[in-house]
Specification:
The chain is of the alpha/beta class. It has 11 helices and 9 strands. The protein folds into 2 domains: 138 residues, Rossmann fold; 152 residues, Aspartate/ornithine carbamoyltransferase (Rossmann fold, 3-Layer(aba) Sandwich), CATH 3.40.50.1370. The structure holds phosphoric acid mono(formamide)ester and norvaline. The site of phosphoric acid mono(formamide)ester has 8 residues, from α2.
Length: 304
Amino acid sequence: MKMKHFLQFNDLNKAELESIFDRAKWIKAKFKAYEKHWPLQDRTLVMIFEKASTRTRLSFESGMQQLGGSAIYLNTRDSQLGRGEPVEDAAQVISRMCDIVMIRTFEQEIIERFAENSRVPVINGLTNEYHPCQILADIFTYIEQRGSIQGKTVTWIGDSNNVCNTWLQAAELLDFNVHVSTPKGYEVEVERAGLYGVDHFEEFEDPMEAAKGADIVTTDVWTSMGFENEKKDRIKDFADWQVDKDMIKLANKDALFMHCLPAHRGEEVTAEVIDGPQSIVWEEAENRLHVQKALLEYLLIGSK
Ligand code: CP
Ligand code: NVA
């Protein structure tokens, strides 16, 4: 199999995505039944974090162990990465000592440069522009709860950030619709989101209008990592872009609420919604583990 990276959602095609979702279902069931599945024995994942993480680190680290391999955690503070070693050099060296790499960093360009110099597959564990592993888990969760996402409507409320951009890429590939409502000045940057046409994407000034007809209502923090200096302005600018019960009422009756987490109750979402009956945020978080195990297996040994 030709070496593949997962730097953006559309690095995988529809058939590959579907095979990963099927495999994740199988891996999850096997794991829940305490049945051993060790296809990655002796393989090592290196995880590089230039930003904080709970879910991404835990799910990759435990996932790799559950597949029979091991994971090594590196961060900017206590490796040469924080002392100016060129990313190209780091990629050459790191990729000679492990079998696969996951990186959480700032600009997408950094991970692209790393991948160009890597001998092994590279996975995007979040950049300023994208968060593809999150959307893999989100769509897997939707399929698990409701079946195919094709033709469904996802409503994104708030900041047009890395998670939003990735939903937009996924919509083009898997043929569903995205309603986006952001405050003025925070609209989707179409070029950065790598959209091929705008068929699956509609912008709404009014977040309430955007929620109408939704099968999934989703949001994220108003201030993403790396944008902390804008926090004060953002709290003012996003005040009307909170997902609350009235907004959820406008969505379809069986709509689900999703959030990649961590969440700020009282800011982008009310406690009533995130802790309410339509919220599936804990399943969504757990599925990071199962779907990423399927991704690791696919990138290292191909489809099963
Ligand atoms: N959703 C997500 O990626 O969470 P962490 O920042 O905790 O990894
Ligand atoms: N958009 C958020 C996601 C965190 C998982 C951030 O980039 O900080």
